Amino acid sequence: MTKKYTVFIIIPSFSNLSPIAGAAAFANKLCDEHDVSIIALKKGNKAEFLFDKRCKLIDISNINPFQKYLYLRNLFSRNSCNTFSFALSICFSADFYTSFFRSKIFTITSVRGDLPVVYKIEFGYLGPLISFLHINFLRRFHVRLGLTKVMVKKISSLTNRPCFLLPNFIDEKRIETYFSNEAQNGETQFIFIGSITTLKSPITLVKAFVELENKGYRYKLDIVGEGPLFNTIVKYKDFLKDSTRIVTHGFLINPFPILSKSNILVLPSLTEGISRSMLEALYLGVFCIIRDNDSSAKEYIQEGVNGFTFRKDSELPQLMIEASKITKKINYKKNLLPNTFRQENVINSLLEITDKYLSKDN
Prior knowledge:
Helix content is 38%, strand content 18%. The strands form two sheets. The chain has a seven-stranded parallel beta sheet with strand order 3-2-1-4-5-6-7, sandwiched between helices. It has a six-stranded parallel beta sheet with strand order 10-9-8-11-12-13, with helices on both faces. Helix 4 packs antiparallel against helix 5. The chain is globular. The longest helix has 19 residues. It folds into two domains: 184 residues, Rossmann fold (3-Layer(aba) Sandwich), CATH 3.40.50.2000; 166 residues, Rossmann fold (3-Layer(aba) Sandwich). With 362 residues, the chain is of the alpha/beta class.
């Protein structure tokens, strides 16, 4: 029988962002059998609703950085005699603080992306410095977790420390009510969910959609998200014969009703790892197309069965046509998410890693 743990999950803020949804997926399953506290470092946008009511939510955004350090040190020190406790941190700021407390508590970090690439795209010339700092934080942890085999290998190389594979996964209970096995007939409905940024590259999808529309294909496209390129997306609607073919929704707290009624999710991100939106789509039986520059997506996409992968922008229009043909043949939807990425299986893997290390230390 699994030991009962005291778990602390440290996050940047209570914001409705993918990494925080990842923290919620951890917390909401762990709290079935363990005591779970969520600690938010900065002000968020009131996304506490992501977390199960059995989790203890702690917001320390109103104190200064040094006070945050003291608070965490005291909290972890009180639990230092508890053999069955660990701290799991997600993202830069959480990793920064948690990395100081290796001697107080068993520390785990879940690395959510290709740090050198992501930081370079998001922060330009400052990217390499931020990446360097973050990688040094990671070295201090007892355990580092990567979302894909490719990421695990890269993290191990960058930190010169072991890294373990723990796939990305979703909070299945939160979205299971939106699953319907009813096939979506009529015109093919494409959807994009994510931030409207250079990194996520929704412009690639919109350009492909406009190209197909001008060739006579009659599809529809929902764009869900917000960001600096949002107005650029809107302007592309002017290139369509029928501008209503693209609907821009902005940010949606709950995109699942629209996602579940879509045929195909497209994510042309320049770097993605394992996308949460993609996992949610597969769980809801939605076919997926994803850019796969490092072969990570091949760990959960079976070509032509639950999705397609591509690398060059020029490949996307034809894949959209092929995906449309495949989904038109579907009589009923089914869960397309591989078992490796199911929530219960991933949580069990996390606890096995933790059990192994804590048993070795004692």
